[in-house]
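[stage:ingest] chain + small molecule (guanosine-5'-diphosphate)
[stage:ingest] validated
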Amino acid sequence: MNIILLGPAGSGKSTIAESFSKYLEDEGYSAGVVNLDSASPPRYSPISDVREFVRAEEVMEKEGLGINGALLRSMELAAEHLDDLIPKDGWDFVIYDTPGQLELFMYTSFGRELVSRLESFTVGVFLADSTRVTSPSTYSAMIAQSAIVTLMLEIPSITAFNKSDRARVKEFEHYARELEGEGVLGEFFEKLLKFVEATSVIYRPVLVSAKTGEGFDELFSAVNEVFCACGDLS
Ligand code: GDP
Ligand code: MG
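[stage:predict] done
[stage:export] tokens:
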């Protein structure tokens, strides 16, 4: 099975790539991490690393590009190495750690290209930073972004709120109640729930901590739940 970690910069993708792969190994599975972030050397030992082929800082220098242009160009260059990056032999789980800038993955063809080449079941885990959830609107914006992952990559996705050792987001219903009768935002939230139900299998967000491993059992159950619900489609 493939797990693609997505989410805004700093939400903890690289940290959870390492700690969740260790968790899976402790559960008796073989698990490896593929680094797809051409701008950051991973702190873990990846089974394959895009930086062996493309380094954003070198693209910047060689092609005389600014940081954003270099990151975009790096994705184009990396797409040519997908065959080398996707591991061939039988891992139970391959976790893909993606670039800090979510939009690079979402709005270039790289993400779709990757998904189209993966042969086994693939689930997206959208990682949000719990410390940035300060209101029903920030919460709903993150849930909506997670649903967009499903639409853009055509894979089921799970929303995981990371850093729950520092801040715990509340239940969906709590925010829904808070917004009830609150005009446009309340109405939007109600519709969002239907949208999320339609676009991803699990709309119940999972609370995790990449640092402490809290919530990893729930995350693993959610991954399996998605697999059981969609497995026959892959
Ligand atoms: P990425 O850009 O999404 O890959 O994020 P990183 O994995 O590089 O993490 C960004 C920062 O958040 C680092 O300083 C991590 O140590 C920190 N971090 C990641 N996960 C957690 C967590 O669960 N709890 C806390 N407290 N910090 C975390
Ligand atoms: Mg990272």
